[in-house]
Structure to design on (768 residues):
């Protein structure tokens, strides 16, 4: 049997018949009740108790001291970077293997993404090659480090927890400390993922979450900033709500802010989703086990497993093709999608996008290799 | 009787007893039905038929060729300006008397707001004083006009229809043509307002609407871009949805985009609200007539009426204090708010905000005078 037919058979064995999208949300809790209550209250918009509740419950669940709900994950990351001191003209280290939102958030601040390599073990930033690269290109200056090749300050790094798998935070935190870089986690994909028993998104100075429709829980569109620094959390809340100074009637703004608040009606959906998160996580672990078992039948394909010492949310289930069959990737994508088993490859790597191809970058052998090997397969909670 | 007590009596005569907020939304249509249907479909997020429907119905209602639904009015304005060719380093003319979002949208593009004066007749940009100012400060260059005082190109103007009252579009369009400026309407407040029988927001190259919780219709949070140029509409849709190239599985982005799409669940709310818009507009006209009649009883205060030849949506009902009583403004605000009749003054003028106080500006005698005279009073649809 051809490889793509074998893969279809194995996916069918796990998912069953019919159409299976890559990731669809599941609304079997209090979604409608909370949304109904929200509409009845007339507070559907910028203030309301569901926003407050969602923020408290996110902080509780993740163990972060504070959560600030915003309009999406990209906005969360943009504000996190700004509050971490990223300024116009700075460079920010990030994986080439990420969703474009990571690079866009840096671009919106008039800073420059600087792409570095990923690790086979985690799919996230590789601290070893990053350490070598920084030794090679950086020099210490009074306010941190400078890229000798571009002359620009390197201000921060953004590890991203790819498809929910935690990256090597210990190694990256050590580098951040050594090179005086701010570490901001892009935890858009990793709600429910733990690095050594501690929730991802609680290691960086600030981090971002996403609740887009394809995420493990959804608010329609939405995101959040996590931080353990109360002062930064207050500032995040302030600038994501147009920086309006509190006053009963005056409309004055004490700095440039953003209209990035999460509407109360979206937070109502989020509160209901959060109640079901532990069930979603259990379902996704079952699905990962089932895929692992199924794909043991063929040596050319394996399921990406959570990194050692970590607990992944398995947001997107990820097949890794063996080196010997990477030329079949397009046929596999074509055949599975034609079959109604929705799959997709890794994102186009950031340094290959027209907007970012002239950005600084390290050698990217692993990211480029992974991009040829990754196929995401149907991953919805409730599939098994 | 003291003036503030007289005003409270007149407001009470119109609004009745109890607490009256400045503007609360009204959900008495299909809101719950559509939101329920949206949740049941699982398409709550970035794609879905309520977004398509909301965009079509907005275009139908306004007479614009196309509408693109986005996450809020500020995002709509930012994208409209970008598509109109506003670039980093440009100046953009706008009223000093506006909500801070107008200035922020320009700032996000690394351009500079340039504040000009308003008119007593419309509360919006004064085309006569703007014409004088441009004659005084601008010089023609190959790609448009330059501000002789700053050396920067002046690229566009943003008339804003204050509290729903259409500004002098004929005068401003003539200036825009004469000085080769793009005209982008900030129609955030003027859904349902017409300038000489044509809907506001359809005169500029592009324009922005807002559906924030306090607007005449709400989607929780949301906005839209209007344009009569299909190519610009397609481009607006593309860059507000991360500039992803259409493909069944590949994730490639051909320029820097934004995650600015309106979630389907918010559009579901919007579709239900739009069905009730004509009723809201009728109610607000009744309210304006009642306030006008009531305040005829005292000579020191009058209600702002729609400009000649225009039909205003009367989004926020606006009292104008007579010159002789402007020193009483704070007492009136204090007394009415204490009484549960929620009122507020004009926004702090843009050139008085810390972030924008060093921006270029024309003399602003009328804006400064209006800021001392304006008091917005309870304006919800359904109040009478």
């Amino acid at each position: 049997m051809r490889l793509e037919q074998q893969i279809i058979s194995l996916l069918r064995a796990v998912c069953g018949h019919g159409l299976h999208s890559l990731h669809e949300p599941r609304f079997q809790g209090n979604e409608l009740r909370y949304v109904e209550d929200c509409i009845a209250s007339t507070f559907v918009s910028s203030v309301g108790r569901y926003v407050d509740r969602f923020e408290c419950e996110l902080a509780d669940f993740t163990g972060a001291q504070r959560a600030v709900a915003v309009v999406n994950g990209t906005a969360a990351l943009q504000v996190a970077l700004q509050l971490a001191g990223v300024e116009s003209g700075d460079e920010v280290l990030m994986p080439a293997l990420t969703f474009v939102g990571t690079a866009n958030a840096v671009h919106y601040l008039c800073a420059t993404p600087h792409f570095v390599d990923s690790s086979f073990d985690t799919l996230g930033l590789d601290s070893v090659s990053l350490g070598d690269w920084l030794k090679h290109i950086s020099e210490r200056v009074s306010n941190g480090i400078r890229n000798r090749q571009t002359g620009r300050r390197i201000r921060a790094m953004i590890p991203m927890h790819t498809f929910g798998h935690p990256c090597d935070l210990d190694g990256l935190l050590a580098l951040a400390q050594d090179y005086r870089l701010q570490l901001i986690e892009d935890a858009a994909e990793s709600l429910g993922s733990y690095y050594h028993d501690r929730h991802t998104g609680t290691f960086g100075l600030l981090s971002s979450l996403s609740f887009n429709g394809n995420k493990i829980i959804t608010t329609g569109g939405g995101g959040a900033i996590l931080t353990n620094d109360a002062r930064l959390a207050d500032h995040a809340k302030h600038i994501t709500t147009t920086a309006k100074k509190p006053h009963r009637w005056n409309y004055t703004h004490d700095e440039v802010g953003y209209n990035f608040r999460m509407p109360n009606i979206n937070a109502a959906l989020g509160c209901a989703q959060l109640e079901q998160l532990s069930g979603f996580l259990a379902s996704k672990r079952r699905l990962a086990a089932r895929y692992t078992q199924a794909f043991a039948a063929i040596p050319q394909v394996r399921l990406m497993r959570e990194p050692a010492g970590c607990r992944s949310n398995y947001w997107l289930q990820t097949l890794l093709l063996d080196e010997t069959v990477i030329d079949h990737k397009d046929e596999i994508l074509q055949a599975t999608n034609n079959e109604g088993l929705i799959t997709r490859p890794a994102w186009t790597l950031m340094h290959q996008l027209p907007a970012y191809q002239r950005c600084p970058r390290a050698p990217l052998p692993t990211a480029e290799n992974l991009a040829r090997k990754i196929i995401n397969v149907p991953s919805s909670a409730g599939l098994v």
Observations:
- DSSP finds twelve helices and 16 strands in chain B.
- Chain B touches chain A through 66 residues (CB under 8 Å).
- The domain at 3-26+277-346+355-377 of chain B is CATH 3.90.1150.10 (Aspartate Aminotransferase, domain 1).
- The first helix of chain B runs from residue 3 to 15.
